[in-house]
User: Fold these one by one.
Assistant:
Number 1:
Amino acid sequence: MRSISNHFVRLAACAAFVAASVPLAANNSMTLKGEVVDQACYTKDKGNVGEKHKDCGLTCAKKGSKLAFVTSDGQVYSIVGAYTENKNAKLIDLFAMPVEATGDVTEKDGAKELKITALKKVS
């Protein structure tokens, strides 16, 4: 009986060691500074940003066009999730201006995606 008890203690210790060795899922939440742009327009011409492209881009954004987040160093993240609902309603007021976005970053088919959880204007 004592042998069986020792065996279970060893087995439990091994299981605890293995569980502690497995890395936890990486936290993929990031805060990025950049600008919300119309993805199709930006893909055609990297100059389609800021105030000079705001009116045109807003027209597309209000129709529900796919939007992207572009950082100052040119990293592009397709925006996905709740912020794109209702024809991008949560993004319209901060379109084409300097913003800070916090959210989960993933990659799908080689493209980066940003699921925004918070968005605010920065100066």
Number 2:
Amino acid sequence: MNVAAWFKNTLIILLLALCAAGPTWALVDINSADEKLLRTVKGIGPVKARAILAYRAKNGSFRSAADVRRVKGFGSKTLDRIGHDLAIAGKPLVAPGAGPSNATASPGQRH
């Protein structure tokens, strides 16, 4: 096999692998996801997923990470760990690479 064919085959394999892994990189919108989609986030099992849905049913949409912290099982440590996989209006609850205070602070709050 010549170099060009090898490169082409390798590129195709890499692209297929990226496509297969793509959904694991996608943010899950906490305001629109159903239980099944919420459970795709590592760290959210059936109990936490149902707690999110119950909160939304009772209080409406989440507006900030502070709202998410009101859900049982979603303290600062949990949001620091999984907040980069959850989004509100397309924005992650915790910015990738951000420190722990990003998930816990609300506007005007100091640590």
Number 3:
Amino acid sequence: MTKLKRPKLKWAIGGLLLVVVVVVAVVLLTGGSSKKKAATGGTLEAGKQQLLPLSPSGRLAAQPGQDVTGKSLVVRTIVQGKGFWVGASDVDRVYVEYDRPAGPEGTKVDLIGSVKPAPTNVEKALGLPSEDTAKVTAEAAYVTASSVTPAKKP
């Protein structure tokens, strides 16, 4: 009896093992989820519409006059005596008009308020620095808060 050689079978098994190794490596390196992880800047909603993260257009996805609630929002920067910015990053953030202290930068707050349309002259109407003015103008709206409290612990 002669031994049958099966080189194609060896290549197929080797290729299959390589694919398995690559899949396992991808799952381990990405955490096993293809879903985008939520930003850690908190939640900001108008009705049932999430305002953070911002819409792909960069505009605030809410209608002026809508009630807004925010939970565990990270205070990014403070504009003394005017308000503060909340969100996950310098790009993904929303201006909140509030004339009382909200807490130091980096703290988390809950808020209640409403959506306001961006005024024609944001710098003059809101008293913001130029780069903040540009951001509110691009978003076409901002939030005015009636209540801001330290975030409740989960």
